[in-house]
Design a protein that fits this description.
Blueprint (H helix, E strand, L loop, with lengths): L2 H7 L2 E10 L2 E10 L2 E2 L8 E6 L5 E3 L3 E2 L4 E6 L4 E17 L3 E4 L8 E17 L14 E5 L4 E2 L3 E8 L2 E2 L4 E6 L4 E7 L5 E5 L4 E11 L10 E13 L2
Parallel strand pairs: 10-19, 12-19
Antiparallel strand pairs: 1-2, 2-3, 2-7, 4-5, 4-8, 6-7, 8-9, 8-10, 11-13, 13-14, 13-17, 15-16, 15-18, 18-19
Protein name: ABC-type Co2+ transport system, periplasmic component
């Protein structure tokens, strides 16, 4: 199936800290659905960024692999790191005759809907001694912020969703366990933008939020902006 249609219907990007050995870190960026890989985006459309424990920001080089993109770096501080990847916005128009087509409304005569898709992915991981984790938005117009950087099996993980720096109520947060290979929960954020997700399995988890903003529509271009963001964390029993 065309990647454009897959993105519109629900494919997303996510990050995993695949190897942390001493100061050597390898991250991987994936594309697919519910943590099942399905292709890979063009690396030219991905901008990866690392925030170190002091919140100092630096860029990363992407190395394409068969089913993912590798991002390697040497950590110079102990503590919690946040990695973020932004995908270049893409505009799609839904036409009466041919369905979704790439490009703005102005390119077609029979458009019934057009959206500008913005995708972001984030993961939080520790190097050396954990240090202190601060739960606050770091990057991205739509951001999922965990109260704790480590998910615990058998407990709830508290997540706060922010949009443009403000807490976002009424948005669905989807939780996926890589070990279980499926969606485990959908929780709607409360009036404070908080969703409490039960963690029932070890290993990597992905949390996804999607928000549509018609106020960011552009005449003759698209009706709304669609923001999709993912957060991945490792869950353990201890």
């Amino acid at each position: 199936m065309d990647r454009m249609v897959l993105m519109v219907r629900g494919h997303e990007i996510w990050l995993e800290a695949s190897k942390v050995k001493g100061k050597n870190v390898e991250l991987e960026l994936f594309y697919g659905h519910n943590m099942a890989v399905d292709g890979c985006p063009d690396p030219k459309n991905i901008t990866p960024t690392i925030y170190d424990p002091a919140k100092k920001k630096f860029a990363l080089k992407i190395t394409p692999k068969k089913d993912s993109h590798s991002l390697k770096f040497k950590a110079d501080k102990d503590g919690y790191y946040t990695a973020v990847a932004d995908m270049s916005p893409e505009t799609y128009s839904n036409t009466k005759k041919e369905g979704f087509k790439a490009g703005p409304k102005s390119m077609y005569k029979d458009v019934v809907y057009a959206g500008a898709w913005h995708q972001m992915a984030k993961t939080i991981f520790s190097v050396g001694s954990n240090g202190k984790y601060v739960a606050e938005p770091v990057h991205g117009i739509l951001d999922i912020v965990p109260k704790d950087a480590r998910a615990k099996v058998g407990k709830e993980l508290e997540l706060t969703v922010y949009y443009e720096g403000k807490k976002l109520p009424g948005v669905e947060v989807k939780a996926v366990s890589k070990k279980e290979g499926k969606e485990m929960a959908i929780v709607v954020t409360d009036n404070e933008g908080v969703a409490k997700v039960p963690i029932k399995a070890e290993g990597p988890w992905m949390f996804l939020a999607r928000h549509r903003d018609p106020s960011k529509g552009v005449p003759d271009q698209y009706d709304e902006a669609v923001f999709v963001t993912t957060l991945t964390l490792e869950a353990s029993k201890n």
